[in-house]
Specification:
The complex is a heterotrimer of chains A (142), B (101) and C (127).
Chain A: H1 4-26, H2 35-53, H3 55-61, H4 64-89, H5 114-141
Helix pairs in contact in A: 1-2, 2-3, 2-5, 4-5
Chain B: H1 2-22, H2 37-50, H3 55-63, H4 65-100
Helix pairs in contact in B: 2-3, 3-4
Chain C: H1 2-9, H2 11-29, H3 33-54, H4 78-108, H5 113-126
Helix pairs in contact in C: 2-3, 3-4
Chain lengths: 142, 101, 127
């Protein structure tokens, strides 16, 4: 699309959407939201970028290699946290009994493994959304 | 004629399902059967056992963390399924087209 | 009068049922495959609304335990948790069916169900 207003507004608004998505992910244990909603926001910002600037430029920003690595990294973070619980406390995905710091309830650095898992889910959902969209759009253009 | 029959059918279905709703114990109070001892356990002990003040997040990632792991694997399976349908056969088709040329 | 009161009490559930039936109507009456997928999505939304409405409590607060609402009535958190799984499954299903529609369009040149049935039966007769 060759619309100057659209391009300038997209350049301004995409970073804000992404920062808001990161905020939602990191505050998943304090406020409504979490990995799924925040990841969907970040994925949506990249979809907006793809719609405005085209698939080629979006592929430079978010290549297939990055998509592969980040999509796998989300699940690997999740499983590794679970294995830490398995080793230290005897059952998969144990939280505070396995020695994760509980912190003061209601502050950002609290709740043990929950923020780590939220980051993993956020990475996974964002990369899934953008990968699926790129796959569908590429086919349609051909 | 066909449209009228379909509309009658759907209105009848709506009435049947609504009658089913009216017999359900749906009162939005604490006495509802869905508000059982599991919910009371989560609400009373959730903050102490997980450290998260958002009970929904505590249930998603701690009490039912294995379920969420399965959810992320469903997303992974979606990527694999879409790629297997869209990417691989089209490359083969291109190669065949090039050979014919 | 009692019936009106019942309807007002159960308005969330009735909305869920209405959404489900709108989606079912779309799936049954349209032959365009994309419209059928949209109908399936609307059906899923109706089921989600129905399920989440079960957790409602009159005058309840969202289940976030800050210092302001100690001892308050909280809504039921479990339906919201379970519906998250359903949303993920519906997204995956939608994307997979869209990819199949793209393949069908490349192979047959149409996404109309009746046209597709005619083309496939012609092909079978030809063979």
């Amino acid at each position: 699309m060759n619309d100057t207003i659209l391009k300038s507004i997209t350049r301004i608004i995409v970073p804000f959407i992404q920062v808001y998505g990161v905020f939602i992910i990191l505050h998943g244990h304090l406020s409504p939201g979490g990995g799924f909603s925040g990841g969907a926001l970040i994925g949506t910002s990249l979809i907006l970028f793809t719609l405005v600037f085209g698939v080629k430029k979006a592929k430079v920003k978010f290549s297939e290699r990055v998509a592969e690595i980040s999509g796998s990294a989300g699940i690997i973070i999740y499983v590794l946290v679970g294995i830490v619980g398995l080793v230290l406390a005897g059952s998969f995905l144990t939280n505070i009994e396995a020695g994760f710091p509980a912190g003061v309830a209601g502050t950002l650095m609290s709740a043990g493994m929950i923020p780590i898992i939220m980051i993993g889910i956020g990475i996974k959902v964002a990369s899934t959304m953008i990968t699926l969209f790129h796959t569908l759009v590429e086919e349609e253009v051909r | 004629m066909k449209k009228i029959i379909i509309w009658i059918l759907f209105i009848a279905l709506f009435l049947i399902l609504s009658i089913g709703i009216f017999d359900m114990p749906t009162s939005p109070t604490l006495d509802a059967p869905s508000y059982n001892e599991t919910i009371h356990y989560y609400l009373e002990n959730g903050v102490n056992e997980t450290g998260a003040i958002n009970i929904v997040t505590a249930v998603i990632t701690d009490y039912r963390g294995f379920d969420t792991l399965g959810e992320t694997i469903v997303l992974f399976a979606a990527i694999v399924a879409v790629s297997s349908v869209l990417r691989i056969p089209s490359k083969k088709n291109e190669e065949e087209a090039q050979k014919h040329e | 009068m009692i019936i009106l009161q019942k309807i007002l009490e159960n308005i969330n559930y009735l909305g869920g049922i209405a959404l489900f039936l709108i989606g079912l109507h779309t799936v049954v009456t349209h032959s365009n495959l994309i419209k059928r997928i949209i109908g399936l999505n609307i059906m899923g939304t109706g089921v989600f609304l129905f399920f989440v409405a079960i957790g409602n409590v009159t005058g309840g607060e969202p289940p976030i335990m800050t210092e302001d609402n100690i001892g308050a009535i909280f809504i039921n958190p479990l339906p919201s948790v379970l519906i998250l799984t359903g949303i993920v499954v519906v997204v995956s299903m939608t994307v997979y069916s869209l990819s199949l529609v793209i393949r069908i369009f490349e192979t047959y040149g149409t996404i109309d169900q009746k046209e597709l049935t005619r083309l496939i039966s012609e092909q079978n007769n030809h063979d």
